[in-house]
Write a structure and sequence with these properties.
Blueprint: E1 17-22, E2 35-38, E3 44-48, E4 51-55, E5 60-63, E6 76-81, E7 87-91, E8 96-99, E9 105-108, E10 119-124, E11 130-134, E12 138-142, E13 148-150, E14 162-168, E15 174-178, E16 183-185, E17 191-193, E18 205-209, E19 215-219, E20 222-227, E21 230-236, E22 243-248, E23 254-258, E24 263-267, E25 270-273, E26 285-290, E27 296-300, E28 303-309, E29 312-315, E30 326-331, E31 337-341, E32 344-348, E33 354-357, E34 369-374, E35 380-384, E36 389-392, E37 398-401, H1 403-408, E38 414-417, E39 423-427, E40 430-435, E41 438-440, E42 453-459, E43 462-467, E44 470-474, E45 479-482, E46 493-499, E47 502-507, E48 510-515, E49 518-522, E50 533-538, E51 543-548, E52 551-556, H2 557-565, E53 575-577, E54 596-598, E55 604-608, E56 611-615, H3 617-624, E57 630-638, E58 641-642, E59 650-652, E60 657-665, E61 674-680, E62 687-690, E63 694-698, E64 703-712, E65 723-729, H4 737-812, H5 823-840, E66 844-851, H6 854-861, H7 863-880, E67 886-891, E68 894-900, H8 904-920, E69 934-940, H9 948-964, E70 970-972
Helix pairs in contact: 6-7
């Protein structure tokens, strides 16, 4: 469980911020955002040239001349929230609009002598006056009575080039920005330039009033702070930079927007800029704003941007890594972080610098490092994809062990160094050992020899080995195999983690715990959101972090042990983190290791397909302490008609359909907010709604009701204050008292009529009996004829069922998209042909091929084009194969060719011919110019192949090498 001790907020560097982007593609009416504000109810408002935009964290709502209610003009120049929490909107024709907390609009059309130009800035003073900055005209105001006032500036003062910037300081002085310097309004109500005694340079200038009441002046590229009525130079930016906007956030950090140099921040880390790959698109930054959750919003010419602190920090090639596809991570005895990637080996020093480890002595090509380990002597061992094992000592001297490659054909996915400095190496050909510089295959009965070893670990002095066929424990006198498949069906082991007296096993069917000779299982059925997990890492706060293909999962060790012990059926809480939480890629990497770890500072590191990500669990506590999102009702509809519910209790007709939509006002991962509702007057208990943002009631009984809505962040607390809707359901006409009196009289009258009718029915009953006997006799004759017809229909139905059964049998053995034999037929044929090969010795070849970059085809041209490409490939394979060959689709973009009585040379010629046919075609899927290639692995059955799966695994490994060699090739083994 998390330690409840408060954690002081930390100031993280700019590189740790995630950037969210919205443009017209996401619903904005225009990409230039001149002003951003937040009203007390939590809503964010944006000023654009195509209307006023409201954002609730889920969607944008635009108010313009065509909306209801509508604005006076579409072009919004500025926004302002006054002391009463009302929103003021200034447009391009000098008009003003006011939106109050009750949702009501009030418009103030411009009155002479106020100019009919763009209102660039709005500020309010303590007397209730609203000061207005008119573009190129000067200063005016709207008095509390709603009347415009405007006095032209003196003739000797040019304001033709006003710059958006208008504030009223704590002394009531009005400051105005222009391209010729800052202006002030003196005690006589006249505009004048700032005193020469200020010593300000001649440059564009504008004022900024910070939330703490401090007045700042921005002059060109310099920032001045007003102290005792005089400006003092605070910071000077590069001379080539022109500052356009400024923000002092709640931590005292100064954010600076520029004309063309992007976004900067001034604070403890000095003057920071966003790192490469995170810069905002070019163009002027027009506005900045900090919301009540600490996120920084930036309005620019290219759209709306938000910078928010995220849980994870990520590193990639832009930070110095040799490649973004990270495979393993390790902290050495000096506290340095080693990272193995598909492009080499890197090391992060304790000061954060990342440098590449030179492995050129091993090979001239890039070395793909799959696994890392450190021995008692401090040396780091690196397992590679195709270059064996490399030892790096404390002076970065390399020792190469190519014998590992020769004994196992590479793929060193796990390394473990025991207390005796023996190095255990997990490869695709089983388990190897390096002892005193000698590589050998330990002759221990029960160890995997032809299996892909993925994970190694030590627990209670014993070596644990995880492979594609389960897990084994090397005991002093024997090798024990744990039968995972009998509990949950696991087969492939990805990770091994010793925690106390238990060993946790990460598999393709969740987690297993081995303790005191007993296995416990925590999988999909017990509340894990995914099947395959790669590595469990416990932290020092009681959290358990799990890496997977679908993000990083977090739960707590207490819940995991309770479920594994059977004391609880389901995990209480499992949170999933992905790119939105700052991860470079939500796909963590398995089948290599360590894929995740906890460093000496308690930080959790995980490798992903997009780089290296790290999270400090202490920072998780800070995020969890943020306030619950404030719930707000958005719309109320009765029978589909929009209602005004804010002023008086809503009256709902009896039997009507009442629909209420709501939202939790938070802009941090708003799509994960959870809701619950309670209808006081009908339900006394809260009803969990999950992420559902609306509720509907039909036919409520007459009475008084109050709907309450609460919201929460995942793992957080419910909002203390609920959003409420008070309404009354009127009775239907038949629910009135006079209606019931009439109904009672009608029932009495009906009873009398029924009695008289009953007497009449009794007299007519005897007459009907005689007719009924005759009718029943006739009915029996008809039933006999119907039975005979039914028997004939049954015979026809059985014949149709037989035909459908034959059709189903064909469908079960045929791929529905390509018409090729499916995986089931292929597996049967492979087993049959392999048995025939073993009996007769006739040659047998297998080709496994995969369409290159097929995902790109789907993403670029749509899945329908991708399906047509698969059909074209299937038809080409059918046309190119001989009569005795078996082409099949194994799934997705993977196909296979089973070639009986065929040597490897003949099969290679067939593959070459197939590649020629692929190259000749340039209209795959009906798209002109679209080319498709494939990578293939070709193998011929050998005497040491014990079963058909051995032949398939070798072909699959050959296919993997073909992909790694650049694709569009056939690798022959």
């Amino acid at each position: 469980m998390l330690d409840p001790t408060p954690v002081a907020p930390t100031i993280r560097p700019m590189r740790d911020y995630a950037i969210d982007i919205w443009t017209t593609r996401e619903g904005l009416p225009h990409n230039s955002l001149r002003k951003i504000v937040q009203t007390p109810d939590g809503l964010i408002w944006l000023a654009t040239w195509e209307g006023l935009v409201r954002y609730n964290g889920q969607e944008f709502t635009t108010f313009d001349r065509g909306s209801t209610p509508g604005l006076l003009d579409n072009a919004v120049g500025t926004l302002h929230v006054d002391r009463q929490g009302a929103l003021w909107v200034g447009d391009s024709r000098g008009n003003l609009s006011r939106y109050d907390s009750k949702g009501h609009w009030q418009h103030f059309e411009r009155e002479l002598p106020a100019p009919g130009v763009l209102i660039q800035g709005i500020a309010s003073d303590q007397n209730g006056r609203l000061w207005l900055q008119y573009e190129g005209k000067g200063l005016g105001h709207l008095d509390p009575g709603g009347r415009f006032n405007f006095t032209p500036p003196p003739d000797d003062l040019s304001v033709l080039l006003t710059y958006p910037g208008l504030v009223v300081d704590s002394l009531g002085q009005v400051w105005l920005g222009t391209m010729d310097g800052v202006l002030m309004r003196d005690s006589r109500g006249q505009l004048r330039r700032a005193p020469a005694s200020f010593g300000l340079p001649a440059a564009p200038a504008w004022p900024y009033l910070a939330p703490d009441g401090v007045l700042w002046l921005v002059v060109g590229n310099r920032i001045y702070r007003m102290r005792d009525g005089r400006p003092q130079l605070h910071y000077s930016v590069d001379e080539q930079t022109f500052l356009t906007t400024m923000l002092v956030d709640s931590k005292g950090l100064i954010w600076l927007g520029t004309e063309s140099d992007g976004l900067m921040r001034l604070g403890p880390h000095g003057l920071e800029r966003l790192p490469e790959g995170k810069q905002l698109p070019g163009g002027r930054i027009l506005s900045m704003f900090e919301d009540n959750e600490g996120s920084i919003w930036v309005g620019a010419n290219g759209g709306l941007f938000r910078l928010r602190e995220t849980l994870f920090t990520s590193y990639g090639t832009s930070d110095g890594l040799s490649g973004n596809y990270a495979r393993s991570v390790l902290e050495d005895q000096r506290g340095r972080i080693w990272v193995g990637t598909a492009q080499g080996l890197d090391r992060m020093e304790t000061d954060g610098r990342i440098g590449k480890i030179d492995l050129s002595a091993v090979t001239d090509n890039a070395v793909s490092v799959l696994s890392l380990a450190q021995g008692p002597d401090g040396a780091v061992w690196a397992g590679t994809f195709s270059d064996g094992v490399i030892r790096i000592d404390g002076d970065d001297r390399l020792t190469h062990y190519p014998q590992v490659q020769q004994l196992s054909s590479g793929n060193v996915r796990a390394i473990e160094v025991d207390a005796d400095n023996q190095v255990w190496v997990g490869t695709q050909g089983g388990l190897l050992r390096i002892s005193n510089g000698v590589v050998d295959r330990p002759q221990i009965h029960g160890l995997p020899k032809q299996e892909l070893v993925i994970a190694l670990g030590q627990h209670q002095g014993n070596l644990w080995v995880g492979s594609t066929e389960g897990v084994r424990v090397v005991l002093p006198d024997r090798v024990q195999r744990l039968e995972l498949n009998q509990l949950g069906g696991a087969r492939t082991v990805f990770g091994l983690q010793s925690v106390g007296n238990a060993m946790w096993i990460s598999t393709d069917r969740g987690l297993y715990r081995y303790r005191d000779g007993q296995l416990g299982h925590v999988g999909l059925e017990q509340g894990l959101p995914v099947d395959a997990v790669f590595q469990l890492v416990p932290d020092r706060l009681g959290n358990a972090w799990l890496s997977s293909n679908r993000g990083v999962l977090r739960t707590d060790m207490v819940s995991l042990n309770d479920v594994a012990d059977g004391r609880r059926d389901l995990l209480e809480t499992v949170e999933r983190y992905s790119e939105i939480d700052g991860m470079s890629n939500s796909q963590a990497n398995g089948s290599s290791g360590p894929g995740a770890m906890l460093d000496r500072h308690g930080r959790y590191w995980v490798v992903t397909a997009g780089g290296l990500s790290v999270v400090d669990p202490q920072h998780l506590r800070q995020l969890r302490e943020r306030p619950a999102p404030r719930p707000m009702l958005e719309q109320v509809r009765v029978n589909g008609q929009l209602q005004d519910w804010r002023n008086n209790p809503l009256s709902v007709p009896g039997g009507a359909r009442l629909s209420i939509s709501y939202v939790g006002l938070s802009y941090l991962i708003s799509d994960r907010i959870r809701y619950r509702t309670r209808l006081v007057g009908l339900d006394e208990e809260w009803i969990e709604r999950g992420r559902q943002r609306s509720v509907e009631y039909i036919g409520l009984p007459p009475g008084e009701y109050t709907l309450q809505v609460a919201s929460m962040h995942p793992g957080g607390r419910w909002s203390l204050q609920a959003a409420e809707l008070h309404f009354r359901v009127a009775p239907l006409w038949w629910q009135n008292a006079w209606v019931w009196m009439v109904a009672v009289f009608a029932l009495l009258l009906l009873w009398a009529c029924l009695y008289r009718y009953g007497v009449y029915r009794y007299k007519a009953h005897n007459q009907r009996l005689a007719r009924l006997v005759d009718q029943r006799t006739y009915d029996l004759q008809l039933q006999a004829e119907s039975l005979l017809a039914a028997n004939q229909e049954k015979t026809r139905l059985l014949e149709r069922l037989r035909e459908q059964s034959e059709a189903f049998e064909r469908q079960a053995r045929e791929d529905p998209l390509t018409g090729l034999p499916n995986r089931r037929v292929f597996d049967e044929a492979l087993t049959r042909e392999f048995s025939r090969h073993q009996r007769s010795g006739h040659p047998l070849c297998l080709v496994v091929l995969d369409i290159d970059h097929f995902k790109t085809v789907n993403d670029r041209f749509s899945h329908s084009v991708g399906d047509q490409v698969l059909k074209d490939v299937g038809q080409l394979l059918l046309d190119a194969c001989r009569e005795g060959d078996l082409p099949a689709r194994l799934g997705g973009e993977e196909f296979a060719l089973l070639l009986g009585d065929t040597t490897a040379d003949e099969a290679e010629q067939l593959c070459s011919r197939l590649q020629g046919l692929f190259h000749q075609r340039h209209d795959w899927g009906g798209v002109q110019g679209l080319t498709v290639t494939f990578s293939a692995g070709l193998v011929q059955a050998r005497s040491d192949d014990r079963q058909a799966t051995d032949l398939y695994q070798r072909a699959d490994h050959a296919l993997y090498r073909a992909k790694s060699s650049g694709r569009d090739v056939t690798c022959v083994e």
